[in-house]
Write a structure and sequence with these properties.
single chain; alpha/beta; Protein-Tyrosine Phosphatase, Chain A; 16 strands; 21% strand; binds NADP nicotinamide-adenine-dinucleotide phosphate; binds magnesium ion
Length: 403
């Protein structure tokens, strides 16, 4: 078989722990035999990030901007425990946070639905796509522990040196403070990405924030969305028969639980982080959620929504057989290859991506799956496969389909 050629390299961002193990098996078994894979490789494993003082993450994000399509493995976001475990020079920032703030844009997360894995929420008939704003808020915060009595203020100094001040708190006992920001530019591009994505998908757009409590900050999000909708999208939405509506985030959460699905849910950065984990597990498994960062200039970064599956990795290191689900990581690769195929006009590459995704779904629907799905499937007599055996079963289906 001749391998499918590529024209532009994918930016490949390797990662950590169990997902790093899966990454290699996916490449060896599902990609390299079929595609003349060209990648520019960046090792975002924690060891390498520490060695390079995290410069590798910045280089990888810049490469994504240069080439336009990246695929990323899950990575450890270090904390104090990780600092000790890996003897880090410091507690480096979240690589996803760094990449998102360089690329800007919106993360769209959509569950992969298969027959036999039914959502926990019985009213959900169609997937719900989360659109997560990828810039600012608590992910770019500055924080301080206040260890003594004193006054904390919010101070803004303009270019002429004029100051605006607000009292945060008069501290009499120890406590904490935090400063966060966002930019009109970023919020507007978030809004436009969401409206465009809804038009592409032909689905309604819901947006929720907490403007009743956050009267300047969240209110700004609400106003910019409303303004951009009125001026740029309203007519096209009406023509497409879809709608946009805003309500409080807690009201949205209540409505989501009673909905049928089939819409886009725009979330501020933190809400999107939390709610996408809720949605993915309620749709079946954390490992069945795809994730793509779309920046305002149309650059893409594909990844799985879950983490590095640390507990499985420790079992893997102890020589035990794992049954870790590789589906979202495979879909990160297929998403990136399909996009590369579209941008570079290589229809065989996009068709290969479709075939790979179909092979994954057919494998699960034939009853072969990893433990997370085997535990919840409504299919009779599911066969639980190991991490490697599942990928090999997908390879078999893929070879049959391509033959
Ligand atoms: P996690 O890796 O998402 O795993 C949490 C649990 O969810 C697992 O223990 C497992 O449950 C289940 N799970 C997740 N993915 C699975 C898969 N592919 N197959 C089967 N089960 C899966 O989250 P975490 O343990 O909280 O975080 C581990 C590390 O990942 C952390 O260092 C965190 O910083 C990092 N992280 C990275 C990203 C990213 O790079 N995008 C996102 C989130 C977290 P059972 O143990 O019950 O089987
Ligand atoms: Mg999260």
């Amino acid at each position: 078989m001749t391998k499918i050629p590529m024209k532009t390299p994918l930016v490949e961002m390797d990662g950590d722990e169990m997902t790093r193990v899966l990454w290699q098996i996916i490449k060896d078994e599902l990609l390299l035999p079929f595609v003349d894979l060209e990648t520019e490789y960046y090792d975002l494993g924690l060891k390498k990030r520490d060695e390079t003082d995290d410069q590798i993450t910045i280089e990888a994000a810049n490469a994504a901007l240069k080439y336009g399509v990246a695929v990323k493995c899950a990575t450890i976001t270090p904390n104090e425990a990780r600092k000790a475990e890996y003897q880090l020079k410091q507690v480096w920032k979240s690589p996803n946070g760094t990449i998102r703030s360089i690329m800007d844009g919106t993360v769209f997360r959509k569950p992969i639905q298969v027959r036999g894995i039914d959502p926990n929420v019985t009213s959900w008939k169609k997937p719900i796509t989360i659109a997560r704003h990828a810039y600012g808020d608590v992910y770019r915060n500055v924080e301080m522990y206040i260890d003594r009595p004193g006054k904390a203020e919010l101070v803004f100094t303009d270019a002429e040196g004029n100051e605006r001040r607000k009292l945060i708190q008069e501290f009499r006992t120890p406590g904490v403070i935090q400063g966060t920001h966002n930019l009109d530019r970023s919020i507007s591009s978030f809004a436009r990405s969401c409206f465009n994505y809804a038009l592409d998908a032909g689905e309604d757009l819901w947006f929720g924030a907490k403007d009743t409590i956050s009267k300047s900050y969240d209110h700004r999000f609400k106003d910019l969305f409303a303004e951009i909708y009125e001026n740029e999208f309203k007519e096209r939405f009406e023509a497409a028969g879809i709608s946009y509506f805003y309500t409080l985030i807690d009201d949205i959460v209540a409505r989501v639980m009673k909905s049928e699905g089939g819409f886009i849910w725009a979330c501020k950065n933190y809400d999107g982080d939390v709610m996408s984990d809720m949605l993915s597990s309620a749709f079946g498994s954390l490992a069945m959620m795809t994730s793509v960062l779309v920046n305002p200039e149309g650059k893409y970064e594909y990844e799985a929504a879950h983490g590095t599956v640390q507990k499985h990795y420790y079992r893997h290191l102890a020589g035990e057989e794992t049954s870790t689900n590789s589906v979202a990581t495979i879909f990160a690769w297929s998403g990136a290859l399909r996009k590369r195929g579209q941008l570079d006009d290589i229809p065989e590459l996009s068709a290969f991506a479709d075939a790979l995704e179909k092979a994954v779904i057919d494998t699960i629907e034939s009853g072969k799956m990893t433990g997370d799905l085997a535990r919840i499937t409504t299919l009779e007599h599911p066969v639980q496969l190991s991490s490697r055996a599942f990928i090999l079963a997908v390879r078999k289906k893929l070879e049959e389909a391509l033959a």
